[in-house]
Amino acid sequence: MNIAVVLIATIVVSIVATVVVRTFARTRVVDLPIKERKIHTRPTPLLGGVAVIFAFIFGVILAWPLLTHGYLLPKHLTGVIIGALILLIGGALDDRYDLSPRFQIIFPIFAIISLIIGGIGIEYITHPFGGTLRLDSIHILLFHWNGLPYSITLLADLFTMVWLLGMMYTTKFLDGLDGLVSGIAIIGSLIIFFLSISKTVYQPETSWIALIAAGAFFGFLLFNMNPASIFLGESGSLFAGFILGVLAIISGGKIATALLIMGIPILDVLWIIARRLFFEKRSPFQGDRKHLHLRLVDVGFSQRQAVYLLYGLTTLFGAGSLFLQSKEKLIAFIILFVVMLILGVIVVWKHRQKQQ
């Protein structure tokens, strides 16, 4: 099976699945523009993540012989697929019944547990100034199956849980403009694709999974750009962070690369959470219009202009990470922080001027 055939098939399945899901959701599961933070003007179908995840799983199964030919084992891919299905089910339930945050988080946690049981985790962290910090020193063997051990590695699994929850909730909070999360998922997947085929890494199996993820989101993005005819919904917005986080892990713990790809959204989410908790004394899960991407629209950007700006910054810092070493990535992240700070100050200043 040629990977080009798999990619084309994944895109086609994504397109067809999106049309089917949109038709189903149009009269059953829609996002109504009734809350303050909503910027769309008409009821729009949800459940787009169902189409994306279905296409991704289809692509992985189609490419299974290629993906399990090297260092990836069937149990790794099984963990990814089960995790994706858990997000699909939980996200679809949330889109339909608007679950409370305490129930929403159950599904991401179980999706991560499926990965950990499948043997995917962060075993070490590379120090920017040289050396590594091992996280896999404490093992608890659970059982053997088909001759393979299944165990818990306390520090590694805890760090993996925190990392993936952070990535998933970053893309969940980012999902406020048409095409934003889908596009960033494509950009991030392609950057990891190029990283994985580089001479220093060379992990073709990871590169193929990244291409499949990009294809699944690309087919959906054709219907999700402004004006969107369907939204990702809970499952899709979580899956974007989930798969980018997983790709960062299986590409050799390229956490710094993923941080640069998702740098601005991550910094925005950290600020939003801190503001809500410490300054406004309320739940960080209560939405508002103070995210950077929504403030860009409030100060005069069109949705497409704001999305293209964030695409550009994501591509700039993400692609730059392909050519940087550990210390240089730390410097790049500091520069990204400064860019985020300057952009935030300008947007807040423009917003206050507009209100006067």
Structure write-up:
- The model has no long low-confidence stretch (mean pLDDT 87).
- Helix 1 runs antiparallel to helix 2, helix 12 (263-279) packs across helix 15 (326-355) and helix 13 packs antiparallel against helix 14 (303-320).
- The radius of gyration is 20 Å and the shape is globular.
- The protein contains 15 helices and six strands.
- It has 356 residues and is mainly alpha-helical.
- It has one domain (3-253).
- Strands 1-2 form a two-stranded antiparallel ribbon.
Q: Per the principal axes of the C-alpha atoms, what is the gross shape?
A: globular
Element order: H for helix, E for strand: HEEHHHHHEEEEHHHHHHHHH
Total helical segments: 15
Low-confidence stretches: none
**What is the straight-line distance between the termini?**
62 Å
Estimated radius of gyration = 20 Å
How would you state the average pLDDT, rounded? 87
The total of beta strands comes to 6
Main-sheet strand order equals: 1-2
Write down the domain tally.
1
The chain-level structural class is mainly alpha
| Main beta sheet | 2 strands, antiparallel
Helical amount among residues, as a percent range? 55-70%
Q: Which strand-content bin applies to the residues?
A: 5-15%
